[in-house]
Predict the 3D structure of the following.
Amino acid sequence: MADFAILVLLLLLLFLGVYAVVDSNLVYERASASQYEAYQPVFTEQTQETDAFAQLVARNPEVFAWLIVHDTPINYPVVQGPDNEKYLTTDAFGKHAVSGALFLDYENMRDFSHFNSIIYGHNMERYAMFGPLNRFSNEEFFNLHEYGSLFYGTQNFELRFFAFVATDAYDSKLYRILKHGTVDERNRYLDNVKQAATYYRDIGVTADDRLVLLSTCSSVQTNGRSVLIGRIGKVLAQVQQPPQPTAQPVASPTPAAVVGLDRDNGVMEPIAGQPLIFWDWLLLVIILLLILLYVLLARRQRRRRARRQPPQTLPAPPEPEPEPEPEPEVDPDDLDDLLAPYHDDDNDTGGGDQLI
């Protein structure tokens, strides 16, 4: 019985382990930038397409911008909620997701008119969401990734990153939002960034510029934060009017991809992943295999138990009582022969006793 209980426990632990792996894959697929790829605004020399982005805005009106950090998987819509809590566990579609979304601080303006605007996102493995930001702690990686873009309203702006800061969540100097502030306040803020920066690139930032801070958790220390700071620069493209939602459906996003790092040139490239349905079927197959294994092991356990027990013998049936033998019949002639000796003795005795 103890062996059987251990077997059941091992099967349960195996099932939970498999479920955790599958669930983890689903979480990372929900966090992958490929889930939003179909909604990305497209700006080329021939095309300026924002209709798909308008469809995403129609699904969730709190979507208002699109952020890209070149040569990394950071390629996501940006949202802004009524506080800084909602989009910790809500994705850009407005659905519950532990991976959350990239969101602008609720105190900032959606036109990024404040001196410094802060965009938050989870630090996730497989380079999902703001997971790649921690790679900027490597000097070579920081030097190779200087540019990005930020689309909002009707314009797509250049982002030029000039500082990486490793700090903590209680850094009031860095996380203080100077909505406008005086020139002295903004200069002191820039001086503090330069002093606190792990790596700094001198691009001539002034108090008249507008800054964007990309902030995520750091795995190096408790309450640690990794912050990449960039300047909003020149306009790269412009559309005639803000994206207007239409009734035209958007193509389904491509299956999620796992992202790998090309260490030769510091570029993160997507590697083809498996669609969600693959993990559903995998989980089903594993469950069926576990059930089959359970049945086989249970049968084997019964057989082992049967071999250990001695065979049971049935009691022998009682022997029938023997029938009494019948008495032999005596023939009268045989009886005379049997009695003849006695008759002879009587004759002799009678003659000897006779008186004269």
User: Anything to note?
Assistant: Residues 19-24, 247-276, 352-356 have pLDDT under 50 and may be disordered. The first strand starts at residue 42 and ends at 43. The helical segments are 2-31, 51-59, 139-144, 172-175, 183-196, 276-308, 332-352.
